[in-house]
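Record type: ASSEMBLY
Status: queued
Input:
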Amino acid sequence: MTNGEAWGGAAERGPGLEPGREPSPPAGPEAQGVRVAQLEFRGRADEYFRIWIVNILLTILTLGIYSAWAKVRKRRYFYRNTFLEGDTFDYHASPVRILKGRLIAGALLLLYTGTGFYGLVWQGLAAGVVLLLLPWMLVRSQSFNARNSSYRNLRFDFAINTGGAYRLFLRYGVLMVFTLGLAYPVFAYRLREFTLGHSRFGTTPFRLNGDTGDYYLIYLKAWGLWLLSFVMWIVLLTAITIFSASRADAEPNPAVAGIMGVVFVYVMIFIIFSYIQVKTTNYILCATALATHRLRSTLRVAGLLGIYTTNLLAIVLSFGLAIPWASVRLARYRMAHTALLVRGDLEAFTASAERDMEATGEEMSEFFDFDFGF
Amino acid sequence: MISGTYFDGRTPARRAVTLQVEGDSLHIHGLPEALAVALDEVVLSEPLGGTRRSIALPGGARLEVEDHPELAALPLRSSKMLTLVHALERRWPLALLSLLGVVVSIWLLITNGIPLLAQHAVQLVPPEVSETLAEQGLATLDRIVFEASELDEARAQRFRRALDELAAGTEMDGKMRLEFRRGGGLGANAFALPAGVVVLTDELVELAEHEDEVRAVLAHEMGHVVHRHMLRRLFQDSGVVLLLVVLTGDIASVTALGAALPAVLTQARYSREFEREADDYAYHYLERRGIPARRFGDMLRRLPIDDEHPGDELLNYFATHPPILERIRE
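Status: finished
Output:
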């Protein structure tokens, strides 16, 4: 899994990095001692297909109850097939806890839909309540997922800081309202900084050494791309109109133009979404440090777009049966472009001793620990 | 002797070990100090695909072992339920049988389960809620597309009486309300909202060559009202989306777009079923009142519907209304 690539060479070749924008590597004589530990996903589409279809069958037969077990099974399959330095990750969540989280999320959804019947005021109120709970839910589910993930039997952790999450949402929520959304990239960056900064492997915290300005630039480029595509579209449309006007027999068909317009917008959203995803993931991961180690992400926009497009086509044409194949090859691609740049000792992490000390206090917080996501 | 890796749970250090069961304890060789743990204190993780299994030891340490048959022979505690699930997942014939089960149950849910549930669910909706929904729906349409009606009051009054007559004897007796609007972008059209609110556009009234044709349309809309189609559709459409979310739930990102298509298809299917039901209602009414059934057909034929592609199977799946010619034939 490892090769002897030195830090400098690796960073220069990393195609996902903006030249001159990558977070500066730790300079110094030790830089020579960096080796690239490549992540690898070894799951197989045929094997995962069988797990996936049985998951669905049992979920239907148990009227949805098994979905929590299905989720754990799916996630475990992906974690346990993700290799780093010859060992795998693992996922330990209790399905019962996930079921509880889903029931709460389902109740919230039902409440929200139900209030819709009674008028916009009530629905607005319900949306407000959900919005108020959002930072709390974010912190709780981050903590749940971190604590239930491990590598080499050492658990990840997340320092609960609910007050910090509320301050973050309040500060940037207000900023976004006043800037009409232009501050969104700043918020997105701070949010990632918050979640990463509170995550730990054992007792060792992750650090994000990025820069808001560089992160904002990614969005500026994406917005520029959006604008450019519209200019191109208008030029194209004008050209078509002039061309068809010059032919007497052809009358312009507004319906066709409309459909083409919708397709065009969808394709552009697809491309720009992938662009933002690739560039921000690369940026954030490359700026992430864990003790003396760093992460490296070299996703390519064209590569991911190709995978998304073929995945979507395969899923639609196979009536959904290609979903397992699509998930496996996406995971394989992502992992093949993610690496840990190891500097020093990878075994010098320690587990939290608090876990045993806080046994009683934990009980209370564990009651609120669940995974919300559907 | 089975070889594996030992992780103490305190550091990510790995140690190659071998394990062996002797009597009622598990012996681990290869650590600085020999380790033996009672068998009833260890738990073997459930089998999952071809992934490694882990043996949880007391105190948080774990052994990771490749999933080979020798392991299954050891008397270790493991989840019985998930071992059974794994047996189902391991073989292609069983997986294909599961696939068949999934297809059949999804089909049954869409054709019977969800409509049946929706039919019961609408009974639970209080009348005030239906009224709010109707008001909101009408207000939205008024804002987006409708304009005030220019129909003369005498005709409007005649159609209102016709609708009241239609409702006589049903549970909607005296609860119907007929609204007239200029359709604008919607053109000649009629709508049935919850709580007995029916909307006719001026364009539809103008298009009719005989007042019985309008009566036929009213009867069709009455069918929607009596069968509570709008509310049922609301429930059924949400049901389909919920089903898809539960089934495909964890595919985040763009691939989820692929799930939107089946939702649109089933929702269109539900809509066509409701239209047929409302058509039936209209024909029965016309028959009872001695109005020739062709009045409804005449009206349908006059509607400027652009998705008229008889025989085009693919488009049929997308259409929210059955093909006009088919409806007229019936």
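Annotation: Chain A touches chain B through 61 residues (CB under 8 Å).
Annotation: The longest strand of chain A covers residues 34-41.
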